[in-house]
Amino acid sequence: MIYLNEKKWLLFFSDVQPRRHTVIRQVLCNKRTVSSLFWGMQYHILDWLNVEPNLNEQEFDLQITKLRNENYLEVTPTGLVLSPNGIIQKNNYQKSNYIITEPKLFQHINEKQWLDLLPLLIQVVSELSYHNRHYYVIGSSIRTQLFFRAWYQTVNNKEKLVTSLKHLLEAFLERFPKEQADIFMSLFSGHKTIGKTFQQVAMVLPDFSYEDVTTLWRDLGMQFALFLLRGDSVFKKLVVPINTEERLSKSASITYQLFNERQNIERIAKRRRLRISTIKEHLLESAILCDKFPYDSLITVEEYEIMTKTFTGDVTNWDYNQLSNRIEFFKYRLFQIERSKKIG
């Protein structure tokens, strides 16, 4: 059994701000609710949406309990905070473990498809460099192979793929420490070469655990996808179909588009055959995740004046009951989101 270091979850806790571990888990595995997105914004962890899509709820909760029992996390009425020892352990983890440096990419690029496709690309081009057409594909799914084959057939000058990919990898990897670059490339199979497993790499490198190697593989793999997207090579076409610039869920995106077309909430709900409450949830998600949102089209001047006079300071300490039902909760939450973004 592979041991996973539960101390990495300390990265998402603070020594001054109480945080609920359920919110952290929901953000990491991209289980979106308005509540988890709102509190994820307050915790400043929304960049980490979907970084751990397969996170098991029961195992995560057990690991949090272990961190509490080891006195790394302390319980408060509103959540968990890092203890003095927890701060030390968090700092130690940051110094000695590999941590994903570009978490936002996991919201935009389909990790599962890309990290299945990338080893196939490396293997095929490697065999191509030796003019070898007779080999077994290692690891990639049938779906990925069909997708790759369709792309490969569109390439006119296949011989140029070898030097092109070699130069791209060299340009990409020169930005990283040599040891990290070497680890990344050692995981690929090629002509008469079988890629190492994560465990095999970890066994020969004392400074890299199994978890470090898998994290490095995911991080550099996704960064290479971005590197290709930003370029103009023939390989860009492999990444474009599995990339999206959209941060909103599909349904929320449709609602927000209709809203930007000047359709009101009631009309959108009727057109989409959804409840008004669902449309409002979509708009709250849009307000949280989009850079620009027309708050003043939903909150009146009078309502702004009331809430501005009623609430000051940290939005997480506000109490909706202070409004005495004069303003609906939906608009109160929008006001909280707007103020949160202005404060930063």
TrEMBL record:
It holds the Pfam family HTH_40. Residues 251-335 form the Helicase Helix-turn-helix domain. InterPro entries: Helicase_HTH (IPR029491). This is Helicase Helix-turn-helix domain-containing protein.
